[in-house]
Amino acid sequence: MADVFVSYARSDKALVAPLVAAIEAKGWSVWWDPAIVPGEEFDRLISTELKRAAVVLVVWTPTSVNSRWVRGEARDGADRGILVPVRFEQAELPIDVRALHTIDLDTWTGDPRAADLLPMFQALEALINRAKPAIPAAPTNPSSSPSRTARASICVLPFANMSGDPEQEYFSDGISEDVITDLSKVSSLFVVARNTSFTHKGRNVDLQQLAQRLGITHVLEGSVRKAGGRVRITAQLIDGRTGGHLWAERYDRDLQDIFALQDEISEAIVAALKLRLLPEEKRAIETRDTSNLAAFDFYLRGRQLMRREKEAESRAAADMFRQATRLDPAFASAHAGLAQVLALIVFRRQLLAVEMMPEARRASQRALELAPERMETWVARAVVLMVGREWAASGEAFERAIQIDPRSFDAHYFYARYLVTRGDHAKALEHYERASAIEPTSYLPIVMSIQEYRALADTAGARRAVERAWKAIEEQLALDPGDSAAYDHGSGLLMLLGRTEESRQFGERALALRPDDPMTHYNAACIAAIGEDYERALTLLERATDLGFRSVDWLMNDNDLVPLHGDPRFQALVASLQAQQ
């Protein structure tokens, strides 16, 4: 049973996808677009889901107001007192629902954090909470039962590195990420995703304002000091509404106890929030990939390096993961990390496939043998299969990863990249939007969604995505002025915004920072094509292939390059790449 049943016109799917992603990012389940062929069985399923839902969210548009199905579902929701109507494009409401308060979303740009969505979220929360049965107090200890009416939610800020050595940053970041991962296993707790929380790293943050902006109830902050064989971790749990401390603790331990210490911190937070930790959740938190401290240390180093896009750093990450697997051959996460980082190097420079793909396949297979129940294992496997052009198996692996963890940014983002290569722009857009809702501060899925909106001829959706993406790029460059990928993607956005000279400057900065990166040249070619400088676009594409770009599947499905398809140089380039497959 889903919390929210969304009623909408099929032709409005691209408009509705970001809305669904924003709702799912709040931790609620949504029924809206099952992959079922219409017919009698389809109708029965709709009827069943409609009856079970806690809320019926109807999306009124000039198209949906004329749909007898949408109007019927809206009337059912209204009759049961569970209807939340929203409106786009100043749609003229059906006469029988005009008396109901309707939330206008014409000014919403697609940002899941925008204040425009607050009235909708409040209405959904009230109806979902009303539908939930009350949890009776335990007879032996009534005070131990949860008294919270709304779902508890938390942002884990990056723990400060107090070691006095910037080289130890990977360790404090790793501890923070592991706490996020552990808390995400608690079904009664919504946890802000890693990328969003890490945008506040090293900044003075007003915790109450942060909680209000993210729509969360609590914030966790802390510090890590690692020296010799000892580690000190401090942590404070803050009430986001009052700014008061709910819980604080300092742990001084031998470094060998780090795994038990992580479990202890996570379980202490759950207890402080007065949440019930299910037995299987407790087991999941306490299950660690490795007990080898040195292997764990190499893994944390690799994980930090893997998040950077430069090839030298990705190769260094691969070396760290290799060291971890040598020290502990049963370390599944290290095998998965190795597989994924090698495949992503090849994704950017396909010329390296012969060198790297055999090892990537072995590592992904070993990770799958060791931990078939883990999302990360399936994402790594799916990326390896995608880069290896094993399309059917890759798609199945992505779907398995999402089934295990529907809130995985990597699963949705890379699945969208996969779907683009298959020419399924509508589904790719859906998963880019879901990734964006999970990590609202990440500019990558928003930027990538623009070409999908353009491919679907959704001009309004593309315009909203451009505005959101540029805002995210500006925020990222304020945090990290040396982010070459932000200049790379920002150049394209500025071209779409008509700021040609600024676009040129951003593009030159990106190429200066990454002169030998094939994807930077490829992106520059797309920007030139958008600006109708087709000769420059073709020259940049040829340079990208000289540097190692080989993805003919992406090339042929990139909407930015459609104007080049009839050019003999482009056709010769495609033929050359196809001959090398």
Structural description of this entry:
The chain has 581 residues and is of the alpha/beta class. It has helices spanning 13-25, 40-52, 68-79, 118-131, 169-183, 194-198, 207-214, 258-272, 279-286, 293-306, 311-327, 332-348, 353-370, 375-387, 391-404, 409-421, 425-438, 443-455, 459-479, 484-496, 500-513, 518-530, 534-547, 552-557, 568-580, and strands at 4-7, 30-31, 55-60, 83-87, 103-104, 152-156, 160-161, 189-191, 218-227, 230-239, 245-254. It has 3 domains: 4-131, Rossmann fold (3-Layer(aba) Sandwich); 148-286, 3-Layer(aba) Sandwich (Rossmann fold); 357-580, Serine Threonine Protein Phosphatase 5, Tetratricopeptide repeat (Alpha Horseshoe). 57% of the residues lie in helices and 10% in strands. Strands 6, 7, 8, 9, 10 and 11 form a 6-stranded mixed β-sheet that branches. A 5-stranded parallel β-sheet has the order 2-1-3-4-5. The protein is globular. The two termini are 45 Å apart. Residues 134-149 have low confidence and may be disordered.
Summarize the helices and strands and which ones pair or pack.
Layout lengths: L3 E4 L5 H13 L4 E2 L8 H13 L2 E6 L7 H12 L3 E5 L15 E2 L13 H14 L20 E5 L3 E2 L7 H15 L5 E3 L2 H5 L8 H8 L3 E10 L2 E10 L5 E10 L3 H15 L6 H8 L6 H14 L4 H17 L4 H17 L4 H18 L4 H13 L3 H14 L4 H13 L3 H14 L4 H13 L3 H21 L4 H13 L3 H14 L4 H13 L3 H14 L4 H6 L10 H13 L1
Parallel strand pairs: 1-2, 1-3, 3-4, 4-5, 6-8, 6-9, 7-9
Antiparallel strand pairs: 9-10, 10-11
What is the rounded Rg?
25 Å
Instruction: Characterize the biggest β-sheet.
Output: 6 strands, mixed
Oligomer: single chain
Structural class: alpha/beta
Could you give me the name of the CATH homologous superfamily of the largest domain?
Tetratricopeptide repeat domain
Highest-level CATH class of the largest domain: Mainly Alpha
Q: Give the name of the CATH architecture of the largest domain.
A: Alpha Horseshoe
Span between termini: 45 Å
User: Given the structure, what is the number of helices?
Assistant: 25
